[in-house]
Amino acid sequence: MYVAWRDLRFARGRFALIGAVVALITLLVGFLSGLTGGLAAQNVSAVLALPGDRLVLHPAEGASATFADSAIDDETVAAWRAAPGVDTVTAVGITQTRAEGPGSATAVALFGLDAGTGFAAPRRDDEVDLSAGAAKALGAAVGDDVSIAGSSYRVTAIGGDEWYSHTPVVSLSTVAWTTLAQRLGGTGQPTVLAVTGSPAWDSVAADTGTTASTPLASLTALSTFRSEIGSLALMIAMLFGVSALVVGAFFTVWTMQRSADIAVLKALGASTPALVRDALGQALVVLALGVGVGLGLTAALGALAGGALPFVLSPLTTLAPAAVMIALGLLGAAVSLRTVTSSDPLTALRSTR
Known about the structure:
By secondary structure, the protein is of the alpha+beta class. It has twelve helices and ten strands. It has two domains: 2-42 and 226-351, no CATH class; 51-214, no CATH class.
């Protein structure tokens, strides 16, 4: 690493420039990753919180299963409950509408299920449980009344931060939800079944004309989740590619400019593996410093933006992208090593005459 450290000290401006570029790309990737995580949570956190090993949906005729179109009749619910290996079946109704609270009105997602099923739900038909987001948007507290579709409900509890399709969750009893769903033009049938146990999933699903997926796999049944996360993931992947190209191009040009020096070092007895380690070590130092600065900026800006944007600051949205950035940067730098491995010492000797 002697030559690498000498280059870093001698050409501080050049390496500071590429380090700044790496830091900015890391900031973009980290911020997009945090935003993607926050948007995903506001889209599907309530679905992931449902108490089931598998989520059962009923697809519309000739179409794939979606939460928007699924409606499960009583016969299907009974068939799943009677299936061998099934422990519990929780019928959950989901619909979206507006609610009015003491502070303001907002769009909400209504979840209808019975109390004691592992998901926050009221015990009486004239009560509701609010998620933290719904309570904040409605300006409601425990004991206040909220109005939904012309009916008034008493707030009995404020739970966690559950969201469904970017709307905060309001939980009702099954009877209250069915009445509201029919009043809003729906069938009043459950949207999804949260099933626990170990039945023959594929067989029961085929017999009942339904689909049974793990909570994580069922997220693709939310059309907004597919389009939103797909777009953001594509942008992150493109930034990763840009990072590898930028770092690779910089070190390719840098290595070509000092090809004569490399040949002289070979003529003096330096081995090719030693020169390769020297070049990759130099790239690693630049990448580590640039990514470190980018991570610091991401953490600072993420903490500031957390109150205004759905932003998640976690190892998955910071350290994981940083590791990928370093790996791809080293891969790009490795492309520039052809000059190191193919340099001829005689070239340096001739160039000095």
